[in-house]
Amino acid sequence: MPASYPLSLNALRSACNQTTSRDPVTHHEEAELEERCRDLKRRGLLRVVWAGKGSRVLKHHQLLEEALGLDDEGVALLTVLLLRGEQTAGELRTRTERLHPFADKEAAEAALRRLAAADPPLVRELDRRPGEKDRRWVHLLGPVVPDAGPGPAVDRESVLAGGAQARDAKVVAAYDTIAETYAADPSSEVRHPFETWLLDEVPGLAEDFPVADLGCGPGHVTARLAEGGAQVVGFDPSPAMVAAARAAHPGLEVQQASLAQFLRPRTAEAWGVVVAWFSLIHLAASELPGALATLARTVRVGGWVLVALHEGQGIVHGDEWLGHAVDLDVVLHDRAQVVAAAEAAGLTVLESYSRGALRPPHGSERFDRLYVLARRDA
Q1: Alpha-carbon dihedral of residues 337, 204, 277, 221, nearest 10 degrees?
Q2: Which of 351, 353, 342, 352 is closest to 376 using CA atoms?
Q3: For residue 205, with 0-12 CB atoms within 10 Å meaning exposed, 13-18 middle and 19 or more buried, which class applies?
Q4: Could you give all domains of the chain from N- to C-terminal order, each with its CATH number?
Q5: What local confidence, expressed as pLDDT, does residue 221 receive?
Q6: CA distance 296 to 347
Q7: Reduced 3-state DSSP string for the chain
Q8: 353 with 341: CB under 8 angstroms?
Q9: Backbone dihedral region of 26: left (phi > 0), alpha (psi from -120 to 50 degrees) or beta?
Q10: pLDDT in the model for residue 1
Q11: Mean pLDDT in each 10-residue stretch from start to end of the chain (378 residues)?
């Protein structure tokens, strides 16, 4: 529930047009929302009230839970399904925690089945897709989009055609080539206010434990985490990137190391947070569970793994980057598969976010972005 409720029309528009934790992301004008509110009021699903004594601001109060006879469990589940689209019972259990705390995934699933058994049904369980561990659920409060099923096969594996070692050598060579140019642009890795907010949460999540920035490149993110108070160590397999990071940030500890060489910290029993900020984007989908398991093993119980990836379908090859000739493949990952990989690694996914690429005049990104925040609970 928002801190300020009921909502004015302007606040309602801001809420509807929020771009984080929303699926689908929408954009509505005030006039459109005003018409929808009038329609809901006519149907007895919304009440309009004055903001306060002497105020001329109208505020809007939803009556859906009264109309449907929902308990707290039903309100929580339907709210998050409306906001974030199809989700598994496990995802719903973690994302409804602030609205209603379910004891476990089974409790959330039992509540979903009660909603599915209502007359008329309020939710529906979808068929399990290939590669998915759990079935997803969808709300039935509006037009039902038929489940499209698995769709055509998407290639996220051909980066391994010559073997993982050959792929890794190409990746290191490419980053060695662009290191100096890449280091000259501090905004290259943090371009969006949401990314700023997410990274600024990391020092607090780490508590008194150190933070690892895996695939740190020239140290832009490492330095930001350090400025926020984190005891951070940067790791990168590219010698040129490590040299650039050390030159730009002489006070930071930066080590040359690949994912396979990544270990627990020297100064503590485990990492408080491991950040992989667009450093796993060259891995095949089949490699993600193993990579995330490696990160999870080095994090303390109660610690966190934060991963940023490119989202989409397939593999994009690049022959040029920042004015340099390279031979580099970027894998565009699927959010459901990444979440499943994190869960297979023994992590509890608390949040996953998607955002569209920034296009001119706001930016020149080529790919949509995916962020996953997961916790090690055991």
Answers
A1: 170
A2: 342
A3: middle
A4: 1-62 (1.10.10.10), 80-144 (1.10.10.10), 158-376 (3.40.50.150)
A5: 96
A6: 7
A7: CCCCCCEEHHHHHHHHCCCCCCCCCCCCCHHHHHHHHHHHHHCCCEEEEECCCCCCCEEEEECHHHHHCCCHHHHHHHHHHHHHCCEEHHHHHHHCCCCCCCCCHHHHHHHHHHHHCCCCCCEEECCCCCCCCCCEEEECCCCCCCCCCCCCCCCCCHHHCCCHHHHHHHHHHHHHHHHHHHHCCHHHCCCCHHHHHHHHCHHHHHCCCCEEEECCCCCHHHHHHHHCCCCEEEEECCHHHHHHHHHHCCCCEEEECCHHHCCCCCCCCCEEEEEEECCCCCCCHHHHHHHHHHHHHCEEEEEEEEEEEEECCEEEEEEEECCEEEEEEEEEECHHHHHHHHHHCCEEEEEEEEECCCCCCCCCCCCEEEEEEEEECC
A8: no
A9: beta
A10: 46
A11: 72 81 74 86 85 73 87 93 87 90 93 92 83 82 60 80 94 97 84 88 96 97 96 97 97 94 91 97 94 95 97 93 95 92 91 84 83 94
Give the C-alpha separation, 278 to 311, whole Å: 11
Q: Please state, in angstroms and rounded to a whole number, the distance separating the CA atoms of residues 219 and 371.
A: 19
pLDDT, tens only, 289-304: 999 999 999 999 999 9
Q: Is 214 exposed, middle or buried (0-12, 13-18, 19+ CB in 10 A)?
A: buried
What confidence score (pLDDT) does residue 147 get? 52
Nearest CA to 337 out of 376, 294, 283 is that of: 283
Alpha carbon distance 257, 181 (integer Å): 21
Label residue 162 exposed, middle or buried (CB < 10 Å: 0-12, 13-18, 19+): exposed
Q: State how far the Cα of 305 lies from the Cα of 299, in Å rounded to an integer.
A: 8
Contact 15, 2 (CB under 8 A): yes
SS (H, E, C) 196-224: HHHHHCHHHHHCCCCEEEECCCCCHHHHH
Residue in the block written with tokens 């994090």: 299
Amino acid (1-letter code) at residue 254? V
CA atoms within 13 A on the CB side of 336: 18
